[in-house]
Amino acid sequence: MPAPDALELIALLDRFERPLVRYAQSITGDLESARDVVQETFIKLARGGMSESGDVVDNARHLEAWLFTVTRNRAVDHQRKFSRIIPMPLPEDRPCAEPGPAAVLERQESATALFRLLDALSPNQREVIRLKFQNDLSYREIAEITRLSVTNVGFLLHSGLKKLRELLREQSPEDFDLSRSVL
Amino acid sequence: MNADDPKFTAHVLGEFDDLTPAERAEIEALIANDPAAAAAAEETRALVARLRAELPGEAAGTLQEEQRAAVLEAASAEKVVRFPRLAAVLAAIAACVIVGISYGLLFRAYESGSDVKPVAAVPASSSHFVLLATPAPTDPIPSPTADLASKVTLNPAPPVSTPLAFDGKLQEELKDAPQIAALQPAPAAPALQPMVRAEPAVPAQSPASSTSSTTVTTTSPPPPEFQFAPATAARKSIKLPVGVPLDSAEPQGGAALSKAVTPKDKLAEADASKAMPVAAWARVRRGFAATSGGIGDNSYGLDDRGGIADKASNANSFDTLTENAFLNVPENPLSTFSIDVDTASYAIVRRYLNDNHLPPTGAVRIEELLNYFPYDYPQPQGAAPFSATMEVATCPWAPEHRLVRVGLKGREIPKDERPPSNLVFLIDVSGSMNMPNKLPLLQKCFSLLVEQLGPKDRVSIVTYASGTKLVLEPTQDKEAMQTAIDGLHAGGGTHGSSGIDLAYRMAQQSFIPGGTNRVILATDGDWNIGITNQSELLSMITRKAKSGVFLTVLGFGLDNLKDSMLVKLADHGNGHYAYIDTEQEARKVFVDQLSSTLVTIAKDVKIQVEFNPVQVSSYRLVGYEKRLLAKEDFNNDKKDAGEIGAGHTVTALYEVVPVGKERPEIAKVDELKYQRIPRAVPVEKPTPQRETEIQEREKLPSAAPAAAPVPAAKAETPAADGRTGAEKPATEEIALNPAPGAAPADGRTVTMHAPHKTIIVDADRGNNTTQASALAEPSPLPASVRKEMLTLKLRYKEPDGEKSKLLEFPLTDPGTTWEKSSPDFHFAAAVASYGMLLRDSKYLGEATWQSVVEWAREGLGADKHGYRTEFLSLLDRARAMKQ
C-alpha cells in the first residue's frame, strides 16, 4: 500500500487518532506518551511504513489492524523503556472513572460502574475487551495486533466476559437487570 | 460442549470464522434445549450490548496540533502533496468508517434505510450491493437513468485529449439516477463518488451532451480533473481510494487499487492549490470535520441546575473549534462556505451566563451568535428567493482593516400564506429528559407551535426512549395534538436512531408536495442505544434528508447536552439547530419566527467570495468554522450546504486587510519556489462559470438534441424584466463583471444605497454566465474591475430542486468610515466581538467589553422583539464574569 498523501492522512487521523490514543493510553497509562506513540505510528504510516512491512493486502480493514499493531508495539516498547509495570493503566487519569455528581445520569453512573468493573479484570482480558467492543475488531484482528493466537483471544474474551457477568450479578443486580430490560 | 466453552462465547458474539459448522450446530442446539445455556447466552448478549454502548464513550485524547502537523509534514516530505477533491477525502473517511463497522451492521442499516420510500422507489440496499458485487458489466450503452455500477466500470481511462464532460454533466446523470442520490453519501457511495464524478464522456452519450462538452473543450480546456475506476474497483472489499498523481493518463492504471488520478491541470496551477502550506491543513480539516463526524467529544463540565463547572464530571459535549486565521489572497483568493441558520450557540451561551458561568469556548460559535438576530436587509424582489446585501466600512476592532458584511435575507411569507405543513414531532422521552428544564419546557414549546398551526397543517408525534412509539397518527385535530403533548412522560434508555427512522417514515407517508415537510426533533442528544456511532448516525440522517423532508433540531437541557452531535445532525439533515433554554426562546422559534422555522425557501446555499489581490492582501472569515467548504465544493451540487427559511437573515463578516496595510501574523511557510505570481497580473477567472454553462445546457431534454446551445441560452435568460435572452456569448462575458453600480444587461438590478452598497437580485439570473472563449488569454483587468474589492458568488437550490443557481455580485470599497456605517453594521460587529471576547480570540484587536457595549448600543435600532436589548444585558453579565 503506497503511503497516503496528506489529505488522506488527515482523514485517517480524524478517524483513528482518538481510538489509537485511547488504546495507547490504556497501555502507557498517561496521555502524553500515548500521544507520542500515536504520532510515531502515523509518521510511520506517512512514510510508507505499511509497504515496508511487506504486506500485500491493501484493504482498509487491514490498515486499521496495522495502525493498532504499530501503536501497540510502540506503546509496549515505551513502557519497557521507562520500566514501568508492563501493560495496564491506572484508571485515575480517565475522567469517566470519577464518580459524577448527583445530577449526572443514571446511565453514566452505570457506565462508570462498568469501567470500574473492567479494572478488576486482568490486563490481557481488559485489552482484548477494549479491542473487541471499543474498536469493533474481530478475533483474528485482535490476534494479529496482540500477537496471541485466535484461540487465546477467544479464551481471554470468554473468561473476561464471564468475570464481568459474575461481578455485575454480585455487585449491582438491579443495574444488570436494567441493562437487560433495555434490550 | 457447554456454556463455559470459549467457542460458546464466540458464537454468541457472532464470531463464526473459526467455528466449524458442526460446532455451530452443536451450540445452537445447546441454546435451544438447555435453559441454563440459553440464559448464559442471553446474559452475555446483554453485557456485550452494554459494552458496545458504553466503551466507545470512554474519553479519548487527540494529538496536539503540532503533532498532527508533524505527521502531515512527514507525508509532504515523502511525496508531492496534492489537493484532491474533497469528495475523495470524504470517500477515504467513509471507507474508514465502513471498515469500522461490521458488514452485518452495515447491512442492517441499509435495510432499515430502504423502508423509507425514496423518491424513486429503488431500495438503497439493492443498489448498494449491485454496486459492490458487479464485475465489469459489458453493456456498452449506458441508459439515461445511468446505472452507476456499469458507469463506473465501463469506461476505460481515456487518452488525455478526449473531450471531457465534467461535473455538471455527471451531476445531471446522477440526478437521473435517484437511487444513487438516495444512497449517497451512505457509507459505500462516497467510495464510489470520486470515481464517477467527472467521468470522461462516452461516445454513446446523447448528441446534446456531447455537443456541449465539445463546445467547452474547444473554447477553453476545463480543469481535466477526472478519475478513473479500474474494473476491480467493484470488488466486494472496499478500499481506501489512494490518490496517485499522474502526468499522463495511463489506461487502466494496472493496479488493483482504485486510483484517483489528477492530471496536471494547467489552469488550476495558478491558484496554488497543488502545494498546500501545512498551516492550511488545519483549515481543510476543520472544513470537513463537521461532515466526517469525528467522534470528537470535548467535554466541558456543567451539571444541571447547580452548574458545577467541574471538568471531570461533565457531560455536555462541544466540539473544539479553532478560529479561522487570516489567509493571504494570492495563495487563497477564494473563500468558500455554507450558510448556516443555527442559533443554538447564542442560547447556550446565554444559558451559561445566566447560570453564572462562562461558556466553554467550543460552545461559542460566532456565526450562530450573528444569525440569532434579524437584520434589516431588503426583501428580495422578483423571482430570487433571497436578497444579498454587502456593506464595507472600517473594522472597529482593527481600524487599519476593513470589515465586510455579507447579508442574505429570505423572502418573507405572511402567516396566512404559509403552505400546508406536514410536521412530525420526534420527541426524546428518555430518562435523561425528565428534568424541569427539559420535558416540561419541551411540552410548552410544542404547545406553542400547535397553537400557531392552521387547519391545513398536519402533525404526527413519535417518541423514543428504550423503544420507539407512534404517539399520534397524522392528524389535523389540534386538540388531539395538545392531548398527546400533555400526556408525554419520560423514562428509559435512549434509542435515538430508531426514532429518527420512524419519524422520517411518517413524514414520507403524509408527504405534502410543495408544502412544508419537516421532522422536529427535540432532545438532549444523549443517545445510548441503537446507532450511537456519530458517523453512522450522520450517514443515516444524510440518507433521510434526501427524501425531501427537512429537519429542525431543538436542544434542551445543559447537563448532558450533546451539542456536537446536534450541530452535525442539523447540518447533515437539511436542518437547523436551535437551543431552547427558556419559554421566550420557544416563542422566538415557534411564534415570532414560525415561518422561518418551518418554511425552507432555498437549500444548499453556498457562498464563495473571490478577493481581488490588487486591493486585498489578506482576509479572515469571522466564524463559520464548522461550515467551511473546499473551493471545488461550491460548484458541486452533490455537496450539501445550509438551508435558508422564509424571512431568515444570514450574516457573515470578513475582516479584510487592504493591500499596503500591515498584514497580521499569518502562519508562515517558506516561500514557494514554483508559485510566484506577479501581484499585478490578474488571476484568471476560475472555472465555475464555464462549468455552470454546461450544467445549464444539460438541462435540455436529451430528446431534443439538435436544439442544443442556442435555445439553452434562451431558456436560461430571465424574462423577469421583459428582456429577451438571445444574448451572445460575448456579451455575457461583459455581464459577468459589470462596472460597479451599473445595471448590467442581464436582468439584474443593482441598487446602491449610500453610504453602503446594496445589491438586490430581482431576477432569477440563475446560471446565466459567461462563455469561456474570452478566458483563454489573460489580459489586464479593466480599471473598474481592478477597483473591486471582491466578488460575492452565491449558489442555491430551490427547496425541491437538484440543480443549483448562481448569483454574482462585485463589491467595490467606497471607503466608508465606521461612523458612517449602518446601525446593523455596528450591531453585527458588536456581536462578533462579543464572541471573540468570550473565546479570548487572538484577533480581538482593540475590542474591549466597553467598546462592544457602545457598538451594540449604537446598533440597537427598533428592536421589535427585544432581542438586542437582551443582548446588552448579556454583555453586562459576561463582562462582569470575565473581569
UniProtKB/TrEMBL annotation, chain A:
Q: Which domain of life is it from?
A: Bacteria
The UniProt record lists the RNA polymerase sigma factor 70 region 4 type domain at 113-164
Which biological process terms from the Gene Ontology are attached to this UniProt entry?
Answer: DNA-templated transcription initiation
User: In the UniProt record, does the keyword Transcription occur?
Assistant: yes
Pfam families on file? Sigma70_r2 (PF04542), Sigma70_r4_2 (PF08281)
Give every RNA polymerase sigma-70 region domain span.
Answer: 13-82
InterPro entries of this UniProt entry?
RNA_pol_sigma-70-like, RNA_pol_sigma-70_dom, RNA_pol_sigma70_r2, RNA_pol_sigma70_r4_t2, RNA_pol_sigma_r2, RNA_pol_sigma_r3/r4-like, WH-like_DNA-bd_sf
Q: Which UniProt keywords apply?
A: Sigma factor, Transcription, Transcription regulation
Check the record and name the SUPFAM superfamilies matching this protein.
Answer: Sigma2 domain of RNA polymerase sigma factors (SSF88946), Sigma3 and sigma4 domains of RNA polymerase sigma factors (SSF88659)
Q: What is this protein called?
A: RNA polymerase, sigma-24 subunit, ECF subfamily
**Which family, according to the similarity comment?**
Belongs to the sigma-70 factor family. ECF subfamily.
Q: Which GO terms describe its molecular function?
A: DNA binding; sigma factor activity
Automatic annotation (TrEMBL), chain B:
InterPro entries recorded = CLCR, Uncharacterised_YfbK_N, VWF_A, vWFA_dom_sf, YfbK_C
In residue numbers, the region (Disordered) covers 199-228, 681-728
**One Pfam entry name:** VWA
Keyword Transmembrane assigned to the entry: answer is: yes
Is Transmembrane helix given among the entry's keywords?
yes
Instruction: List each coiled-coil range.
Output: none
Here the segments flagged for biased composition (Basic and acidic residues) are 687-700
Keywords in alphabetical order: Membrane, Transmembrane, Transmembrane helix
**Bias-annotated ranges (Low complexity):** 199-219, 701-720
For this protein, the record's PANTHER family field holds: CALCIUM-ACTIVATED CHLORIDE CHANNEL REGULATOR (PTHR10579), ZINC FINGER (C3HC4-TYPE RING FINGER) FAMILY PROTEIN (PTHR10579:SF43)
Instruction: Write the protein's name.
Output: von Willebrand factor type A
Q: Which organism is this protein's natural source?
A: Chthoniobacter flavus Ellin428
